[in-house]
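Model it.
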Amino acid sequence: MNRMGPIDWGASVARPSSLSAPFLMATGVLTGAGKGERLVAPPHSHPEPMLAWCYRGTVWVHLEDSIWRLAPGEGIWLPAHTPHTARHERDSVGCYTNVPDSELAEPLREVRRVRVQRAVQEMLLHLGVNDMDQDLRVRIQGVLLDMLQQPVPEEPAEVSEIPVPVDERVRPLVDAVLAAPGDVRTARDLFAQHGLHERTVLRVFVSDIGMSFGQWRTGVRMTMAARLLVAGTPVGAVGSKCGYHSTSAFSAAFKERFGVTPTQYASRTQSADAHRAYWR
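Modeled.
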């Protein structure tokens, strides 16, 4: 494992299948190490679809063109042969379940978000550490696959996916912002640090992800803010950690993004049945 830095996607390797007949899935469980500064593995792909999901803490799944933040009970389906890696924040637990294409109701052609119910989480972990009759295991796996493919209910808007430019010229800049969303330096200061011209950055961001650097940076900060608010961090402290000089400025930016104030967002999320079900 390497410290966070530019990810060499060109070096992604194709791993062999982890499945064996007649079983319908295989789940690997990984815990956060250190302070979340390391990737759990070099970039790689699998010959079958994979469900990446979070059991505890916060898991960041890195793809070539985006980064997904997973909270407890949240997951994403990755199509077969999709290069990926992940980073687990300290004390987090991330799980990776591989399944055959033939067991999915529809072909998986794009990354898709999924809610992993608490009962499904516990049973997937239970299957990973307990012996049982082979036929019983296969029947349970079939039921779990049916449950995982249920439609995701509508939820309050939240930033779960962070698009990232693929142009390597701006990757050090992107990595710096992702590592420290609350850095108060101006965009020009960051550009200068990485030897980038403002026009170059604008062209790359608009071309690759359809937004300016400023819009993207705000999105990254709002992703961090939402996670901190759900964790119970006071609004003023969240604003400061996200690079805002005043609580009022942070609240205004947050409301513009989510349609509610930070206090309303935290209250609604923490009181929701779904949130209580997945709280760790």
